């Protein structure tokens, strides 16, 4: 499992409470517990929960598909996630799965619980929904992401027109109903959707990429912000589709976690002024 790539969920102040909730639902464990960041391990996968304030709300443009082995497993997660949550698609039998449901939990995170016929090595798979101005661009996005990252590829693709009878009238036949792709060995699903949802990609759910060096950092940063992307602060950016990424050199985490609090604090202050993270400038702050 590539744990150099993982989702980050934005919370106002309740990330610790949410971390405990998800560990309870999925039998996970908390691996980092700080006032700003909580890291949890679910099925060997890392998720980061961030207390960032009230600015961003999570929504279903990025959901999490959980591939379950038994109907009981689907039911067990559903029963816990629905507490204080809202069903987006009822837990039922569908053409694509004998037992499936889509639920928004009490923290605004949406989960698709899916009885799978083949176990994936990655049990939780972020699912990107291409809507509004991005509708019809899922294929292009997969090609862009798989070109950008090493060890990447596009897997199974189901277009709306492939399904025959079950094809919703509103969806163009060539649009993606469901597709699988991997970047650097980490799995994603994606889909196009023509419905006029009241939400879109935002900073509420981002994808963190831990980089080994400045060359990798520069390559990913420059490629992802190209052709209509947007630089933000502290290693955050938006790509041309509005999807948020955090490009974080591993060296930043090492320096921020230094036992010398004063040096670590200098590194944090230097990082706060940066858009793209520049490792050399972090080292300079550290040694200043």
Q: What would you say this structure looks like, in words?
A:
- It comes from Chryseobacterium luteum.
- It holds the Pfam family 3-dmu-9_3-mt.
- With 288 residues, the chain is an alpha+beta fold.
- The chain has a domain at 212-287: 2,3-Dihydroxybiphenyl 1,2-Dioxygenase, domain 1.
- The chain is 26% helix and 35% strand.
- It has helices at 15-26, 71-81, 138-148, 214-225, 250-256, 261-272, 279-287, and strands at 5-11, 29-33, 37-42, 45-51, 62-68, 86-94, 97-104, 110-115, 124-130, 153-159, 176-183, 186-192, 205-211, 230-231, 236-238, 244-249.
- The strands form two sheets. An eight-stranded mixed beta sheet has the order 2-3-4-1-13-16-15-14. Strands 6-7-8-5-9-12-11-10 form an eight-stranded mixed beta sheet, with helices on one face.
- The longest helix is centred in the first third of the chain and has 12 residues, at 15-26.
- The chain is globular and about 60 Å long.
What's the arrangement of secondary structure elements?
Blueprint (H helix, E strand, L loop, with lengths): L4 E7 L3 H12 L2 E5 L3 E6 L2 E7 L10 E7 L2 H11 L4 E9 L2 E8 L5 E6 L8 E7 L7 H11 L4 E7 L16 E8 L2 E7 L12 E7 L2 H12 L4 E2 L4 E3 L5 E6 H7 L4 H12 L6 H9 L1
Parallel strand pairs: 1-4, 5-8, 9-12, 13-16
Antiparallel strand pairs: 1-13, 2-3, 3-4, 5-9, 6-7, 7-8, 10-11, 11-12, 14-15, 15-16
Helix pairs in contact: 6-7
Protein name: 3-demethylubiquinone-9 3-methyltransferase
Pfam family, one: 3-dmu-9_3-mt
Organism: Chryseobacterium luteum
């Amino acid at each position: 499992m590539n744990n150099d790539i993982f989702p980050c969920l934005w919370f106002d102040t309740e990330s610790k409470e949410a971390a405990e909730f998800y560990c309870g639902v999925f039998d996970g464990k908390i691996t980092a517990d700080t006032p700003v960041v909580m890291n949890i391990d679910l099925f060997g996968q890392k998720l980061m929960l961030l207390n960032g304030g009230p600015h961003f709300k999570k929504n279903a443009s990025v959901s999490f598909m959980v591939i379950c082995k038994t109907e009981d497993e689907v039911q067990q997660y559903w029963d816990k996630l629905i507490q204080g949550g809202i069903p987006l698609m009822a837990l039922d039998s569908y053409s694509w799965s004998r037992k499936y449901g889509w639920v928004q939990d009490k923290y605004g995170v949406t989960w698709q619980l899916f009885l799978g016929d083949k176990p994936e090595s990655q049990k939780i798979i972020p699912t990107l929904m291409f809507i509004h101005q991005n509708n019809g661009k899922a294929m292009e996005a997969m090609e862009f992401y798989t070109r950008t990252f090493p060890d990447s590829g596009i897997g199974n693709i189901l277009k709306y027109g492939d399904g025959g009878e079950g094809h919703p009238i509103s969806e163009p036949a060539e649009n993606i109903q469901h597709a699988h792709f991997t970047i650097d060995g980490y799995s994603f699903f994606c889909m196009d959707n023509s419905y006029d949802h009241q939400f879109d990609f935002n900073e509420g759910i981002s994808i963190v990429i831990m980089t080994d060096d400045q060359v990798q950092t520069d390559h990913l940063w420059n490629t992802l912000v190209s052709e209509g992307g947007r630089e933000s602060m502290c290693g955050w950016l938006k790509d041309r589709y509005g999807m948020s990424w955090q490009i974080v050199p591993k060296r930043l985490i090492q320096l921020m976690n230094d036992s010398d609090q004063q040096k670590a604090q200098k590194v944090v202050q230097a990082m706060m002024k940066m858009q793209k993270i520049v490792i050399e400038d972090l080292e300079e702050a550290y040694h200043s």
